[in-house]
Amino acid sequence: MDRRNFLRLSAAVASYGLTNIHAISHAQEQVAADDLVYWKTIIDQYDVTDQYINLEAGYYGIMAKTVMNAFMKHNQYVNQNSSYYAREHYYDDYAKIIERLATKLNVGSDELVLTRNATEALQNLIVGYNKLNAGDSVIYADADYDSMQSEMRYLNTFRGVDVVGINIPEPAAYQSILDAYQKALDDNPKCKLLLLTHVSNRSGIIVPAKEIISMAKERGVDVILDAAHSFGQFDFDFNDLGADFVGFNLHKWIGAPLGVGMMYVSKDRISDIDVFHGDETGNTDINARAHTGTMNFATVLTVNDALDFHESIGIRNIGARLRYLRNVWVDAVINNDKIEVLTPQDERMYAGITSFRIKGKTSMEDNRELAKILFDKYKIFTAAKTGLNNGSYIRVTPGLYNSRDDVAALGNALNEITS
Ligand SMILES: Cc1ncc(COP(=O)(O)O)c(C=O)c1O
């Protein structure tokens, strides 16, 4: 931060007296993504280490302090009241949280069930999808999450279907992604099920989900949507996507404590997912599709507090801020011909997550080494990752706790390393 900005910020913070989130409840209005004063008040809501710059918010979301405090209170309350709470109050509290999430997504509360994470929701959807016959085919892509890919491959053993893996073109573009899915569907007329990841955890690419789902449905192909990275990261109209089977988590971008996810199945499709391991709740009840056993009650209760915090900023502001932070470092390296940014410069296709590699450095060792240099020399934490067809890469995910300076430091470091 330069001196002028620093002085401006100090004066403004002093005069606003901004110390907590309640002081900024005007934030549902649109706030500029680079508004230093406003976003400093948000950064101050997080307790993050000052030992390094954490640009790996993609694994799970750090809870804001208010959320963390509420979580500790819920934990204490649940521990004090144990089974009295569980038997007398938990189910009402759970129902209210489901109701709130259903209102947020504009779906029925009988179309949602909480799970322990997105993996549980998606695995149950993939293995539970009971419209497959031997000889049908199913499709997934290299940009999908590892354990969802293996779950799709398992359908070969479990349902006797042919499993087709496709690669998202690199460099990717809106149209080339649509073309890749269209070709996959055209080439596989026996396809009945497609796994689609709304935001790839590998490349950060937001796929044209609405168009792909509609293209699939026109051909009688159902889609299981992995929304682990989209819900809470940027604004989209869930209903407009036309998705019937969706897995979410709430511990990434909603900012709830670790250990809570959610499954959505549209009401008229619930019986197309098998009840979980013979659950006897009922064939038309979504709760029979995710039999979690005892959940962490305090974690579930804290979903409310996480939503309060999230909504006090507003999803449009959150999406715009994450895109802005992403753009600060990407703009600094986009003309560096030694760096390949894997997430397209098309605003429809990215939010906060973006991946890159140094050209030609495609092995995991190369990328681990680069991540180590970034950490050891520049104190910047990123994630070296594998899994894309064209090789390994580094994933960068800023969070709301990051400042402009944090992401600018990455841009500077990359230019210095490649100079
Ligand atoms: C695209 C995607 N799908 C699914 C998951 C699994 O999420 P969870 O940790 O909630 O099981 C992740 C986690 O990183 C992910 O990135």
The number of helical elements comes to 12
Overall form: globular
Structural class by SSE content? alpha/beta
Number of domains as seen in the coordinates: 2
Short description:
The protein is α/β, with parallel strands linked by helices. 43% of the residues lie in helices and 13% in strands.
Describe this structure in words.
The protein has 419 residues and is an alpha/beta fold. The protein folds into 2 domains: 3-62 and 314-417, Aspartate Aminotransferase, domain 1; 71-309, Type I PLP-dependent aspartate aminotransferase-like (Major domain) (Aspartate Aminotransferase, domain 2), CATH 3.40.640. Helix content is 43%, strand content 13%. It has helices spanning 3-16, 36-43, 65-105, 118-128, 146-159, 174-187, 209-218, 238-241, 297-313, 315-333, 364-378, 404-417, and strands at 53-54, 112-115, 137-141, 162-166, 191-197, 222-226, 245-249, 261-265, 339-341, 354-358, 380-381, 383-385, 393-396. The strands form 3 sheets. It has a 7-stranded mixed sheet, with helices on both faces. A 4-stranded antiparallel sheet has the order 9-10-13-12, with helices on one face. Helix 7 links the parallel strand 5 (191-197) and strand 6. The longest helix has 41 residues, at 65-105. The protein is globular. It binds pyridoxal-5'-phosphate (PLP). Pyridoxal-5'-phosphate (PLP) is lined by residues 117-119, 145, 197, 201, 226, 228-229, 249, 261.
